[in-house]
Amino acid sequence: MVNLHSMPDLQKEMKRVKSAVDQLILTKLLPESSPIREVDLLYKMMRDYPSRPAKGMRPFLCVTACRAAGGEEGMALLTAACIELFQHWILIHDDIEDGSELRRGKPALHRVYTEALALNAGDALHARMWGALLTNRTSLGADRTLRVMKEFSRMVNATTEGQHMELGWVQGKRWDLGESDYYEMCTRKTSWYTVAGPCRLGAIVAGGDKRTLEGLRGFGLKLGVAFQIQDDALNLVGDSRKFGKAKSDDIFEGKRTLILLHMLEEASPDERRRAVSIMSKERSKKTKEDVSFVLELIQKYDAVGYARRRAAEMMKEAIGTLRGLNWKGDRTAAALLEAFARFAVEREW
Amino acid sequence: MVNLHSMPDLQKEMKRVKSAVDQLILTKLLPESSPIREVDLLYKMMRDYPSRPAKGMRPFLCVTACRAAGGEEGMALLTAACIELFQHWILIHDDIEDGSELRRGKPALHRVYTEALALNAGDALHARMWGALLTNRTSLGADRTLRVMKEFSRMVNATTEGQHMELGWVQGKRWDLGESDYYEMCTRKTSWYTVAGPCRLGAIVAGGDKRTLEGLRGFGLKLGVAFQIQDDALNLVGDSRKFGKAKSDDIFEGKRTLILLHMLEEASPDERRRAVSIMSKERSKKTKEDVSFVLELIQKYDAVGYARRRAAEMMKEAIGTLRGLNWKGDRTAAALLEAFARFAVEREW
Questions:
Q1: What is the interface pTM, i.e. ipTM, of the complex?
Q2: Which among A184, B38, B236, B311 is least surrounded, fewest beta carbons within 10 Å?
Q3: Is the pTM of this model over 0.80?
Q4: What angle do helix axes B303-323 and B288-300 make, rounded to 10 degrees?
């Protein structure tokens, strides 16, 4: 049994790991400056998102799963930093694809520097991520380095597929979607790179066995969906200063969230027709009244409540899977993973 | 001495290697289909550029350098295919960044499917490239696989820096540029991924020594610039059906080519002022008369002739470096590399 009184505070742990990882990124993994003016600006752009505040959940999961699986924290820091680099480049590209205005409380990179330069800076960060992963060789050896990279490859493949599904639904004006479509999309778009990938990468670094990796896959895929549902809920009802994105951005972007799909299922044919017609408009053509109408229907049918209940169920299933694992390492770390699972659906930011 | 009569025809060799590499890409490295409609479309988009005709110079260089350095062609095919994948994803992104309309004689990917989906498909291909490189392990072993990936990392880093330089000049309306700026940009943007990277990767696969790699770096960096100059020239004076891009696209895009920089240096202050003001206009605001004016100045000062003479000099220096190398493998392959160097600046497509 873990003594809960001696367990470090989850958010402090996340902050501690995040700070170690950020230092690695900004002092070792990314170039600082160049005598060529344009190249110098590229480096500055690459260092922009890594310098903005963020929760650091993914590196925390990687490092903590490594410890739970019997490894040392130091073994996993580089891999955890590469997970953050992944998050940085994919957010730069997502923000362009979604036409987002804000990221982490400041204008998105393409709003500061043009889409063309931001797109290329995302590619540059993407390549640096793989370059940094290669340097795992010194501490993990060639074989384990390649295993880590294989997991990265799986994680990025899933994420681009999920991203395409979501964008494709918006562009194809598809509304013939049910809950299972949302789960398919969300498992790919969010679960792999937010929970399953980071946890499994930590376990791989520690030399975890196949059963542990399988378990972390199950844990991560379920918890990732629960995490995304809470993200969707916060986008509608959260404090945008804490959340770092514009309020109700998902409605402006036409995102198919579980909340929205549930509301559409419950709504009357007339309500549904009007809501679909609003959601299908281009971002710039949606009025405040349009968005209010959709928000009121969401409230009328308690769609946020419904989605949060589903998220809570998935979180419990995920914790069940986690408890079935036979950890070889630090039991406190395993308890922290469970604390994170609760945080993922209870957080307000 | 190589018997030139028994040397295979360069273009036939390029075609043969290209065809082997394309088959590998389309049957083994890229997924074919998915039961999920949107994911299936993503796969179709990923297979689009790889299905369009192209010269296949880069895989040819990789395979041929491998043979010259003492390796077997089969050892290098996977790496050569990954070089093609690199070319595919970076072209998708470049076409978005430059606002290009045509690629290889057909509409650019983002013109067919929207910028958002094309951007994401480029990311998906980028990740598949690294995933495919990992599978070198089976034939090359873990250590050599990591060395290949390290060279890839260097190659992609240089390319994104060169791309940023070129975009940054256009966006910053910079015209205070000389020949040496062009070479700096071009070495990064073109030389690494077109010549230096492919040749060195072939040699690394074959287990080539440090001296060979250094020599191929020198050969590749010079020849790459010469290749780009010829590309710039063909963009102005070439047959756009053969070349696969819209005629004078570089002038519409405001590219700083050696041809243009030389013309500006030779032009009278009035000519220069008008040319710069035209070149600085946005693509859509340039008239046919604008472009004709710039083309006439280029002709008046024989700027294409000047640039081609510079390209020919660099090609000769590159061949000098190549001849100084002590090849351990197939001498015919080494002769083919030299034949390629001439082709790079003499080609009409």
A1: 0.94
A2: A184
A3: yes
A4: 60
